[in-house]
Write a structure and sequence with these properties.
89 residues; elongated
Length: 89
């Protein structure tokens, strides 16, 4: 597995976590109460929203950093900060 493959998997994980975070945020904005719906389960949507948000932030920051370790992409830190003149799309 190359660094580009690992970076793409991190990008997919970040998109998935951000989508899940949006869903939890929508549940929070509509004042969804899981205790009324599921009596036997205690689900705290605020805790899951916070957890997915911080995890998505960490994964999305690690996504471009992993490209720096690729031997075939030839990316530098400047290419990540200012990607207009990057060697690859």
């Amino acid at each position: 597995m190359t660094a580009l493959n690992l970076s793409s998997y991190f990008g997919l994980a970040a998109i998935s976590l951000l989508s899940l975070n949006i869903l939890f945020g929508l549940l929070l904005s509509t004042k969804f109460n899981p205790v009324r719906t599921w009596h036997s389960r205690r689900v705290t949507t605020l805790k899951h929203n916070t957890w997915t948000g911080y995890t998505a932030l960490a994964v999305s920051l690690a996504h471009p950093v992993l490209i720096l370790f690729s031997t075939t992409a030839h990316f530098h830190i400047v290419d990540i900060v200012y990607p207009v003149h990057a060697p690859k799309q």
